[in-house]
Specification:
- Chains A, B: GO terms for molecular function: 4 iron, 4 sulfur cluster binding; electron transfer activity; metal ion binding; oxidoreductase activity, acting on the aldehyde or oxo group of donors, iron-sulfur protein as acceptor.
- Chains A, B: This is Aldehyde ferredoxin oxidoreductase.
- Chains A, B: Its cofactor is [4Fe-4S] cluster; tungstopterin.
- Two copies of one chain form a homodimer.
- By secondary structure, the first copy, chain A, is α+β, with helices and mostly antiparallel strands.
- Chain A has three domains: 197 residues, Aldehyde ferredoxin oxidoreductase, N-terminal domain (Aldehyde Ferredoxin Oxidoreductase,  A, domain 1, 4-Layer Sandwich), CATH 3.60.9; 196 residues, Aldehyde Ferredoxin Oxidoreductase Protein, subunit A, domain 2 (Orthogonal Bundle), CATH 1.10.569.10; 153 residues, Aldehyde Ferredoxin Oxidoreductase Protein, subunit A, domain 3 (Orthogonal Bundle).
- Chain A contains 26 helices and 17 strands.
- In chain A, the strands form four sheets. In chain A, strands 2-1-6-3-4-5 form a six-stranded mixed sheet, sandwiched between helices.
- The longest helix of chain A is centred in the C-terminal third of the chain and has 21 residues.
- The first copy, chain A, is globular.
- The first copy, chain A, starts with 8 loop residues before the first strand and ends in a 6-residue tail after the last helix.
- In chain A, 64% of the residues are buried.
- Chains A and B meet through helix 4 and helix 14 of A and helix 4 and helix 14 of B.
Chain lengths: 623, 623
């Protein structure tokens, strides 16, 4: 293709044979799926063998960026990782920021497809057309910060990378993939997939800047984007405190569950107020090409961790390592957060696993002997720090928790499942589904399990673009579908979701940016872009259907959320009305209400006729 | 001067007025003192106000490199820091490696003289002719690794720096100055001097390569040097394990005191054998321009610190954090070592302070309440890690130990001084003076206190260049003077002492390198170079005399070394015969035996007539 916006190449890597082959990006793929998450869905659909063990060499790990990555467009240099998840058994997409995405583009690739398993630990060194499988035995076993020094020294000081730590090597089911600047593709166990392939890191460097189709149009669109960001009412708050601006607010709004979802109240929650948190900020920083600069560095001047300099935990981690464990000690949360980054652990799942263990001990389901003699208590920072380490290194009780709460509950037995807060095996994030029904519906139906970023409901949570009653069940199928498709559309373009969810960016502006950058006529039409979003979402669903984890029976939600009413205002007495919500949702989706399966009609409407045929052959189309 | 070898500039910095002025390097200074440690002695003699409080703005911190720094000559890019020490009250020289020394040269300076005190924390950004006093309030409080990210991002990714951590800021009396690559000018409290000046770091970048006077001669001399290194019998061992090659060997030879010098035996000492230590090595690395590559990185694959990646402790730290505390847990020693590097603490003094505290508690001199309820025990890794932190942050008992063992003993009283193993306030390193008399004599008479690197006696310890009975007192004055002057000579040229002490480099080769690089005729003569060594040594002594800490009564050694015989072979029954050794030494030095003061005759012989006159006016010349 006459390549604008895109790098124009896909790199196919086979670790078993140590072969890497670059192929031209098919124009048709670009048109049909835009890029990034879109490419991931299509490549996995095409390449993932049905029923594959996620930790076998046959699992496929797809790393992608969008057509705007590495350009002047704002917030568009995210890198996406798609794979079959060892945590959920479903299709998975994990995503992160920093500079690695832009660098992949500069190295000359829109997507990297990794298959096979190296005989011994390796890292992949991608230097434009030169691809090397480098021995990684000397860094196998090291944390991300330890590996960092080797990787950059051995390649290029200005290279960027995505690596795993000891957690990924030890196949912790929720091991993360961590970039050189500690941005993580955290969820779903991509780190374990890399670990299972003996792939310690992917390092990239290049100087190939993407060509822009229409420079003048593009410049204007970017100016409009920057203007739109600056006049957005959430811009200032995002800049000042990042996602932490929302911790206290979401607590007040009743979205912030505590003590493993038992409660919605938290002692000393004042410590999460913006005016307290801002005292810890040492530095603002941004991902490649983003004026929001939501990244924060953190300075501790008192207490046992004084002097240590760490990434500031995000909203989610202040919840998973904080509120959900009854902990409000910011220093300990921050320290544990950074340990998790360096070991390469998803903080949401790790925190949920710790909350699960504490509640099991509290309920008398597990004995002190089973938890290595630890005194598991709510609100104890030492428990947090110790269990993060034990999970990452699979020590003692950590070896069980490293399986994720779903499997850990199966191992423990004795009714432990009741306290395992997950959907499809993915631990719940910091939003109580009972307090936001469309948001909860997105979680319940999500193709990757309980991810807060696959359908974050701005209508309900922040009232953007218009306020909707979060407790009502009316029209929530439509709202859930809307944000799921919108998210898929923007992520197919490689966009960060913060500007999307805060209303800084519209489909109209997305269209301008995409067309000006790529010159692809179809991208001029926002209806087409929405169609791609829905197409991507349905194709991801189809992968789950093919894998046998894509029916109504998989769209579950923990019993506690279904049966225990919220004990306090503002969501007092709310439960989650799963069945009613699902009926509405499947109908709006054009899927079969009884089975939750996509219909031939819907798939054909989305240009996925072949997909429909494949599912039909498998007996997985509704009759 | 027609500038060869040297950068040709001295930078005078006044932090109080935020003025920096560069002056041409006087040729006479270069000829008379060569550079590096030589420049430090001369500049301190000239500029240090008599009787200054080491932590006041009037203390002078001199940072220097030698004329071979940044050239192809091997092991010659050390950076030296001279100041009046807050730990000892004496003149002090502290020294380190890495790349910072070469970069100072590339930035265009042979020496930097820092005076005054900034009103608020600053760092100095030296970019060739551009000198900036940059606000450092955002990194004040951070560890060295935390600061690193800011300093390099805010200046130049390829810049190099020397910085302090929380220990220096808190004026811990043995706070270190740490480079970007964690090489430290550890001893004597240079970090506290920087802290007292509100100077967080000195960052340098430049592209000015030193000019060589005679390229062909120089190339040949460097070739000869590399050849000499390679054929040296210690080269291989240094390369394989660095200074750790000697841990077990020196233990066997009886130089390795244990349990605060109470014993000379250590349980599980096998863990320090080269064949065990080499299993931890993940990487060899070198300072600028050195084929020895004695630097090691360390990988822990088991235990509580698994996955963490740290600098390998040197010989001294395996002693101070290991043998001297009864600890042989390599993982804990390594972890504590790196904590110390990141907090900016001298590991020798910190370990000695911990040993002192443990023995006081063991002897019942301090109570559990006074040590924050800790159970201080020999051989307990947790005690080590906890006390390193407490000292660095001046918490509880750490606040007293942070004063160094001499002052801590005064604070405690109750006879604690008996267990404070120091000379002139500087904690003893890993050599038992009783087992090597000339080496011990160097320690006792050293101008900076008990430093192992100011007169390391290769004759006694390794038998280089010829073996001398270490227990005999015969001829030890001469041997002590020889290594002290030799050390001063090589350090005036900016040399690392490892090649000197292992016999890889001779004065003859030094002379060739210096002359070829600088074209200074005097440097052709090795006798002249030896004279400079003695001159530097005597000038440093004169500074101490002027400060009132340079007489025989200051050349003391701990009572335990004087009175308690070594309990085990090979040095069984040895004590340290201080007075006999001192008499011999002063005589050989041409100093007054009764007072230990340098004579006018000796000073004049060394070209230090003005120095003699000054001391005379102060009544500090022997009558």
């Amino acid at each position: 293709m006459g390549c604008y916006g895109y790098a124009g190449k896909i790199l196919f890597v086979d670790l078993s044979t140590k072969k890497a082959v670059a192929q031209d990006l098919p124009l048709d793929l670009a048109k049909t799926f835009i890029g990034a998450r879109g490419f991931g869905a299509k490549l996995l659909w095409d390449l993932l063998p049905k029923g594959v063990d996620p930790l076998s060499p046959d699992n496929v790990l797809v790393l992608t960026v969008g057509p705007l990555a590495g350009t002047a467009a704002q917030s568009t240099s995210r890198w996406f990782v798609m794979f079959k998840s060892p945590l959920t058994g479903t299709y998975f997409r994990s995503v992160s920021g920093g500079f690695f995405g832009a660098m992949l583009k500069f190295a000359g690739y829109d997507a990297i497809v990794v298959r096979g398993r190296a005989e011994k630990p390796v890292y992949l060194w991608i230097h434009e057309d030169h691809i090397e499988f480098r021995d990684a035995s000397h860094i196998w076993g090291l944390t991300v910060d330890g590996s960092r020094e080797f990787l950059l020294e051995e390649t290029n000081r200005n290279a960027r990378f995505a690596a795993i730590g000891p957690a990924g090597e030890r196949l912790v089911k929720f091991a993360a993939i961590v970039s050189d600047d500690y941005r993580t593709a955290g969820r779903g166990g991509g780190g374990a997939v890399m670990g299972s392939k003996n792939l310690k890191a992917i390092v990239a460097y290049g100087e190939r800047r993407p060509k822009i189709y229409n420079g003048e149009l593009f410049r204007k669109a970017v100016e409009e984007q920057v203007e739109s960001y600056k006049k957005n009412p959430t811009f200032e708050g995002f800049h000042e405190l990042g996602t932490n601006n929302g911790v206290y607010l979401l607590y007040v709004l009743g979205h912030f569950p505590t003590y493993n979802f038992k409660q919605i109240e938290l002692e000393n929650v004042d410590r999460f107020k913006p005016e307290v948190l801002e005292n810890y900020i040492a530095k603002h920083y941004s991902c490649y090409g983003c004026t929001i600069r939501c990244g924060k560095k953190f300075k501790l001047t008192k207490g046992p961790y004084a002097g240590l300099f760490w990434d500031f935990p995000e909203y989610e981690t202040h919840w998973s390592f904080g509120g959900n464990l009854g902990i409000t000690n910011i220093e300990a949360i921050t320290y544990a957060n950074q340990l998790a980054d360096r070991y390469g652990l998803d903080t949401i799942s790790a925190g949920a696993a710790i909350a699960f263990a504490i509640e099991l001990y509290e309920k008398g389901i597990i004995s002190k002997r089973e938890i290595d003699g630890l005194e598991l208590r709510w609100g104890d920072p030492d428990v947090l720090v110790e269990l993060v380490r034990k999970i990452a290194l699979r020590e003692g009780i950590g070896n069980i928790l490293a399986e994720g709460v779903k499997r850990a509950a199966e191992i423990v037995g004795r009714g432990a499942e009741k306290y395992a807060m997950h959907i499809k095996g993915l631990e719940l994030p910091a939003y109580d589904p009972r307090a936001a029904k469309a948001h909860g519906l997105s979680l319940a139906t999500s193709n990757i399990g309980a991810s807060h970023m696959i359908g974050w409901n701005k209508f309900e949570i922040t009232g953007i673009p218009r306020k909707v009653d979060p407790f009502s069940t009316e029209g929530k199928g439509e709202l859930a579908k809307y944000v799921q498709d919108e998210t898929a559309m923007f992520e197919a373009a490689g966009f960060c979701l913060f500007p999307v969810n805060s209303g800084m960016i519209t489909a109209d502006l997305l269209s301008k940016l995409l067309y000006a950058a790529t010159g692809i006529e179809e991208f001029k039409d926002t209806k087409y872009l929405w169609l791609v979003g829905e197409r991507v979402y349905n194709l991801e669903k189809a992968i789950n259907v093919r894998e046998g984890v894509g029916t109504r029976e998989h769209d579950k939600i923990p019993e506690r959320i279904l049966k225990e009413p919220v004990p306090r205002p503002p969501a007092k007495r709310q439960i989650f009305e799963l069945n009613k919500l699902l009926d509405d949702y499947y109908k709006v989706r054009g899927w079969d209400t009884k089975t939750g399966l996509p219909t031939r009609g819907k798939l054909e409407e989305l240009g996925l006729r072949d997909v429909a045929s494949t599912l039909e052959k498998l007996g997985m189309l509704p009759v």
